[in-house]
Each structure stands twice: as structure tokens, then as C-alpha cells.
Amino acid sequence: MGSATPTTSGQCGDPPDQSRVVQVLALDGGGLRGIFTAAALAAWEDDFGTRVADHFDLITGTSTGGIIALGLGLGVSPRQLLELYATDGTKVFPTGLLKSRRIRWLRRAKHNPRHLRAVLERQFGDKLLGASAARLAIPSYDLVSDDVHLFRTPHHPDLRRDWRVSAVDVAMATASAPTYLPVHGLGGYRLVDGGVWANNPTMVGVAEAVDRLGADVRQVRVMNVGTVTELVARPERLDTGGLVAWRRDALDVVLRGQALAAKNHAALIVGRQNVVRVDVPVPHGLHGLDEVRPADLVARAAAASRHSSPDVAQFFEHTPSPYVPLYS
Fold this sequence. Notes:
alpha/beta; 10 strands; globular; 11 helices; two-stranded parallel ribbon; single chain
């Protein structure tokens, strides 16, 4: 793997046949709420007796969704990923912070990234992004160029470099949520969580399918899995509020707004019948990015996946175009 070199010759990188449907799996960010995503995917694998990764032409995921997408591409089952969250979630994001650490959070990232890196290294080893058996698109954001950064497998002749990046580094880059984890430095880049621009990566998937896979917008079909959505009554203090009033709501409003826009715009572009989103509302404060109730998320995923099983069945009937990475 390490000695492989990119090539643009042969048929290995040809995009999907435009006469066929191009399916995208889009996985939202949401920290430990990724338990919901992994549990839903695991339930569907049981329902249909098949692997999720075997039915999509492209998988895109942000933050926790990016970690799950990488796992699917590298042959890790949703059930294994669910066990990973259950076993190591509190190691990555310890709960019950001491008062001294809460004060420290005002000036430094809340959590130490070495815990997440250790878990990822144990799961992915030294595998490169190029080892993925599925086409992947993983969002991050670079503070040096102040621009979006998208890690992609070599599924197009122009994508010559990202395949050499370790899967662990890609995962760290997409999951480095501001204030929760520090910036992930990589080759001169200063990378943070892709959720700052694509927490719901549905539009990333649509754009990649059209631009890099050569799909017609009428042939793109997206299955988008969320990480539960809080039911929130926005307080009236926000109407005239400043920094103090908005400090707790600003991030949530931004993430929710982006997620809604991504889903709605994708539906307008590819057709409402071609975008299926699976997510559930939960009471405000029940689950945080770094502190959740795993049993509740698994139970909600069981109910949501059961209810939506007829809607997602079509996705598991699809055979994607063959993918052979563009390197030798």
C-alpha cells in the first residue's frame, strides 16, 4: 500500500454508468450520538441480510459520521462500530468533569485528543484512506486557508493525494469539533470538524456524485441518517440578545440550519422522492455531543430503523458500479 503510486490509465477509475442510479449514503455529525447511526445501520443489515457498504456508490460522513463512513469503507461492520462507541465512548469523552477542568475549558479544548487517537488506531491500525473498498468523501475545514477541506478516495483521475493519508488522521480531522477537541495538524493544514460547514453532508454527496462520478442529478438517490434532533423552543431572550444570550444556542441553530438546508436543497435538486432522511426528535438536553444515554439512543434507533425499513429497502436492492481505486 505505502509504495503504491497513482495512475490515470485503464478502466479502474471510470465513473458509474449514467444510465444507472447512483446511490449516496450521507451520515451526519453529532459526537457520541453516532450511536444512533451505527445502531440503525446495524439493524438494517440484519433486516436485509447484507452489508450496507455493498449498496452505495459513494459514502460521505462528517465528524462521527465520518468515522462511521471510514469504518464501513475499511470493512468494519456497523455492529462493531456500535460496540466501539459503547466500549470506548467514555474514554474519548470522560464525563463528570471536575470544576478545575470546566474552568480550563474556557481557554482550552475540553477533551484530550490522545484518547480518540488511541481508539482509532486500535480500530483502523495503519490503514490509509486509499484502502477503502468504497468511494468516500469526508469533510473537514482548514484554518490556514480558511476554506473547506474534503478528503476523498481516488475515485477520479484528479484525486491523486488523499489516498496516502492515514484513516486515523482523516478521522481526527473530521471529528475535531471546536472547543471539544483541539485543531488537528496535518502536513501544514490546521483542520477542524467538517460540521462547521457540512454537519449534514447530503449536499456534499450530491455534488460529488454529479461532479466526480459523472451522474445526472435525476439519477442520484440519497439515504441520509441523522444523529437525533433536539426539540427546542428558542427562548425570547435571543430576540434582542448578545453574546451572553446566544452562547448556548448559536452552535445548535447553525448546525440545525445547515442540516435542514442540505436536505431541502438536495430534495429540490435530485427530487424529493430521491432523498430519504432517517432521524428522530428527542427532548432538549437528553443527549449532548460528548455525554449521552447509550441505551436510549439504541432504543430510538431500533424504533426509527423499524419504522423506516420499507422506505430504505430500495437502497438495499441497488448494486453499485464497481470501484477500483486509481492507484497501482
